[in-house]
Amino acid sequence: MTNTSRVLYEAKDGMARLTIHRPEKLNALDRATVQEIDRAVDTAGSDPRVGVLILTGAGEKAFVAGADIHELATQTPVEGEAFSRAGQAVLSRLETLGKPSIAAINGYALGGGLELALACTLRLASESARLGLPEVSLGIIPGYGGTQRLARLVGRGRALEIVLTGEPIDAAEALRIGLVNRVVPAADLLSTAEALARTLLSRGPMALRYAMQAVRDGLEMTQAEGLGLEAALFGLTCATEDMREGTRAFVEKRKPAFRGR
Ligand code: COA
Considering the entire predicted model, what is its pTM? Predict the structure, then answer.
């Protein structure tokens, strides 16, 4: 376990766990925390032993209660744009890392916290989680990708209701609209995330990478273009050792030993 001041990083059994650790401020994202998330994501991305990332928040109350409002309050327009761009870049690196990430949402996921969860590949929530984008109540709009990723995930109408009212929704509602994949009791949240991570770790890493890319980039294209991308990536999987191992293991009636090549 490596302890930096704002993010706890632990890599074990193919999983990297990133715990946003600023519990006295409900894990609010100040600049230092965002930088540490970036470094931790980079560490997980470049460690060949890590196949899946799990992100969660320290304490029982919050995943992340948003960007740090004290820092936000003093920004000039130029600083505001740079702040937004810098946060967006960190979350985009997480989203395009090529390794799946699971947000284990253990409480409030507000503003930048929900935006961080939206940049993850999958989202699990505890029954007590509350999710929202309250920025408009501060006179600003979401700036870490919330207006873009939320609408793509749950549709324009639902996204606009969440963005424009600024009101958080509970975990059951988040599940109903597809904002989270599963809701579990708080005590089971991390074990459920780890079980899901183990399932992902048993699959071909190269296949996961290309499948995420096909879905993510395909959503930005026409269906015909997306089908072209899918075919090209399918072709690429046929050049991997993982493909040879996966198909051979099936024929030999054994579990595949994927190497991510
Ligand atoms: N930025 C900076 N500090 C924050 C924060 C944020 N986004 N969210 C919480 N905190 C701090 C509080 O200021 C408080 O610090 P203090 O003890 O030094 O005063 C501490 O975290 C605990 O929060 P508190 O408000 O006392 O807890 P609560 O249980 O009464 O309320 C929330 C919880 C989440 C409803 C409330 O903290 C909140 O509304 N936070 C802001 C959410 C938000 O607007 N996020 C989007 C920002 S763009």
Answer: 0.96
